[in-house]
Write a structure and sequence with these properties.
4-stranded antiparallel sheet; alpha+beta; 4 strands; single chain
Length: 147
């Protein structure tokens, strides 16, 4: 069965090469661009890039301004998402403020469960962890010469 398949593939390859060999490609002659033309096309490309980047910045500015500082398009008058903590695989904890209650909800795949309920006084903000840029800054600050 494999021999028949590969024989058919080789036959099609030979047939397609024979069809292309009969046709003669007649392409128009193109003169190489002058050096002045290349410079103009680079400037046009750069200007077009700046226009597109400016348009993207303008759209993002308008979205941030009219969405109240966040790019969330859904909002609720009765609850607010305070924090999200992805733990492992598909397990995620959500901290919600519902009225004056604070609710911790666990989400795994298709299951959502309330884990516990807290008072606002029970929450203690954790100190911000140092990111990678802060780590690099601390390392290079130690290795830089005093002065």
């Amino acid at each position: 069965m494999k021999r028949v398949f590969w024989g058919f593939v080789v036959f099609l390859a030979i047939l397609s090469q024979a069809a292309f060999a009969e046709e003669e490609l007649r392409l128009p002659e193109v003169a190489p661009p002058s050096s002045w033309g290349e410079g103009v096309s680079i400037v046009r490309f750069f200007l077009a890039f700046l226009v597109v980047a400016g348009m993207l910045w303008g759209v993002s500015y308008l979205l941030r301004r009219y969405s109240g500082g966040s790019l969330r398009f859904s909002s609720s008058h009765y609850m607010r998402l305070l924090d999200v903590l992805p733990l492992r695989g598909n397990l995620t904890l959500y901290l919600l403020e519902v009225g004056k209650r604070i609710v911790v909800i666990a989400h795994t795949g298709s299951t959502v469960r309330e884990v516990l309920e807290l008072d606002a006084e029970d929450l203690v903000e954790q100190p911000k962890t140092e990111g990678f840029s802060g780590y690099l800054e601390r390392i290079f600050r130690k290795s830089s010469p005093p002065g």
